[in-house]
Each structure stands twice: as C-alpha cells, then as structure tokens.
Request: fold
Amino acid sequence: MDSKLLEKTNDWTFVVASAKCDYHNQAFINQSLVIETRVREIGRTSVTLAHRIIDEGSESLIGKGEIILVNFNFSEQKSKRLEDQVVDTLQDYLDEFNSIEFSKHIDMRQSKR
Reply:
C-alpha cells in the first residue's frame, strides 16, 4: 500500500473494528517474515484489508489475517462515510488486486528481524 496514505497520522480517523489471524505454521524469533497486504473490500464507512505472513526465504505460508478499519468521528463517537479521495485511492488497489492472484503479488514488504 502506498505509504503516502499514512503521511498525515494526525488526521488518522480509522479505528480497528475487527482483527483476525489464523496461523498455518510456526514463526520463530529470528525468522525473516514478509507481510503481504491487499485491499479486499471497500464499504461505505469501512475498508477490509487482507494479510498473508510468509517466510522470506522459503516463501512458505505462516498465516493469513484480515482487519476491518472503520472511519470514525471521535467527536460524535460514531462511524462516518469514507471521503471520496480515500475511496478513489483504495479503489486503485482493489482493482489491481482483484485482477491478479493475491498469492503471487506482494503489495507491502516489511521484514521483521
């Protein structure tokens, strides 16, 4: 995902509504892992991201996860509609990832050591 989406962290209005991770293999403390992330679904007030955790060397699957982020108005303490600019940006990633096989595309690589 484009890091420019996260440049204005003071304006961050998303809260985690749900987070899930299913492990398929063990991960170890000194293991280099890669996190693959894609936009799975864009709702009226939320976005669902899908994640895969793989071993950097063997490319074996460690786990799969999903997170639902809700756009939130902290003053009113309720969800709010996603802005058109955010939807347009996320839509580019949704279209890209729906047109290719997720298992063969790495969107965001973050090594953990």
About this structure: The first strand starts at residue 14 and ends at 23. The two ends are 21 Å apart (CA to CA). Strands lie at 14-23, 33-42, 46-55, 61-73, 78-79. Confidence is low (pLDDT under 50) at residues 103-113.
